[in-house]
Structure formats: structure tokens, C-alpha cells
Amino acid sequence: xxxxxxxxxxxxxxxxxxxxxxxxxxxxxxTTSYPGVRVVVADNASTDDxxxxxxxxxPQVERVALPANYGxxxxxxxxxxxxxxxYYALLNSDVEVTAxxxxxxxxxxxxxxxxxxxQPKIRSFNRPDHFEYAGAAGGWIDAFGYPFSRGRIFDTxxxxxxxxxxxxxxxxxSGAAFVxxxxxxxxxxxxxxxxxxxxEEIDLCWRMQLEGYRVFCQPRSIVYHVGxxxxxxxxxxxxxxxxxNNMIMLAKNLTWSELWWKIPFxxxxxxxxxxxxxxxxxxxxxxxxxxxxxxxxxxxxxxxxVRARGSRPLANLEGVYRGNIAWQYFVxxxxxxxxxxxx
Length: 343
Description:
The chain is of the alpha/beta class. The chain is built from 11 helices and 14 strands. Helix 1 (19-29) packs parallel to helix 2. The longest helix is centred in the last third of the chain and has 24 residues, at 256-279. The chain is globular. The model has no long low-confidence stretch (mean pLDDT 94).
């Protein structure tokens, strides 16, 4: 790849039956001002007319046709085998980009070879003055593996009042708008195919940190995300995947000294959450959590069970809250990121 005019970037959108999103948001993506940027849509065997729309309405967009719906994780892994670029900008089909969104991210990542991945500030498309659930101003994680964000803890989503406008290292970058160096992506094997969807980007960012790379949020870049386009919040399938994949991620990446007690402790916390859901009349969530745990146990005894190569304790990584976010949120009523740190 020729870098004489700067690094090459491919914006890659994974699509599954998202014709309406492509029609609505692809025109803005195509106005991205970054020099020489390519736009690629990888189609996960859609059964709507997405591919026909691309062929007739957006002939300048490159297309990668996948033979089956591989989900987010394997879908991107398969598609990116055939995309050559220095950077991949992985973008959900339900994301509206803004003018100049890509340049600040690439500039930040180019500053150091250890800078591997970055997300923009993600606001809600439906409430533009608020952050969006999936990533907000950068992903964090607590000592027991619960993910949250600057600007979003559990179901509390903050208004964007400029509190998180400084670029900074984070634990994980949102898969809704995930810019990554291609060599790092392939070096680490990309997303974990087994995850299918949900938290595969957190797992990959954890593995990046274990290998000495850094992950950032660049708030000078802003995008707007609809969210819940395929599996909305509260969907039982989404709940199952989140609980299963989160436990798998912990088993893969925690050190042995953490693993032996944090896994059973987390399962206990999850069970408490599941029982609370049952008592409140939400049997679907209760069943999804139980199924997630059973699937995790099955994974541990399967051929898919692997561990990352690193051995750094979770607390030694960036973007880690060393306490229990559930305790702070539900018991101490600390609902915002800044409240966690007494400010």
C-alpha cells in the first residue's frame, strides 16, 4: 500500500437486511472528505433488496457478498480478508457521519505505532444532544467485567454537555464506529467468530491492550447512531449473547490469579440480576441469563475455548474502574461517569 499521500482508509459497513439504513445514511458516508477513502459494503446474505439498491443506487460503493449471515464478528472477519487498506473504519449501517469525522481519528492513531484503535464521540440519532448507548464517549469496564461508557452507565444515558471532550485512552471502542489499524486487526486474528454479535469489540480491545497497544476516543469526531437496528435493547437474544459473550471474554483474558474467583463471583451477580428480573415479571430476561451461563459452561469444554497470550491483570490496563459498577449504580445511586470518581 502506498502511503506517500497518507495512510489508506476503507470504510466498511456490514449489512444484513438494512436497506432502509443504507438508503438513509450511505449518502453522508460517501461525502467523507478523507483523501482517497474507499467505501465497502459487506452483505451478510441479506434477504431484502439491499444488494440491488447498492447495485443500482450506489454503483461507486464496493461490494463484498458473504454466503451466509455470519453475524457481526465473523461477518467482518470474512469481509476484511479481501479489503486492503492501512486502516479499517468499521461503521454500522445505522450511523450518520458528520463533516470531517474521519481525519481527527486517523491523525490521533498516526501519532504512535502503539495507537491501534479509536472511536468517535457517539451521540444518539433520535436525541442528538444526548450520548448513544453503544459507546458514548468511550468504553470502560469495571473490575468484574461489566462494560459501561463515559456518558452511559447501564440505562442512564447522559446529555452531552461537553464533559468528555478531551481525547483519551479508553478500554474499548464501540463497534458502531470502530477505526482500527489493519495490521493490528489481522495480527490479533480480528474478532472472535464464536461471539457472533455483542462484545466482540471489547474482547478485541482487551487483547490489544494485553499486547501493548492502546485504544482511544477522539471526541473531535462526532457521529450519530440510531442503535438497536437489528436487536433492540431488551431483546432476549441480545441479552443471551451479552451474558454469554461477557463470561467468555473474562475467561479468555483474565489472569489465572483473577480467573478462579472472579468468574464464580460474576456468575453469582448475574444470577441475582436474573432473579430480580423474574420477580419483576420479566421471565424472558431470566431465561436468557440462565441460557447464557449454560452456553458459557458449554464453551469452556469445547474446541472454541482459547485464552489470550497476555497475562497483565485487568486493573493494570487503561479504562478500568477498579470497583463494582453495579454496586455504585444500584446501591450508591451513582449514575454518571463523573460521579464514580467523586466529581
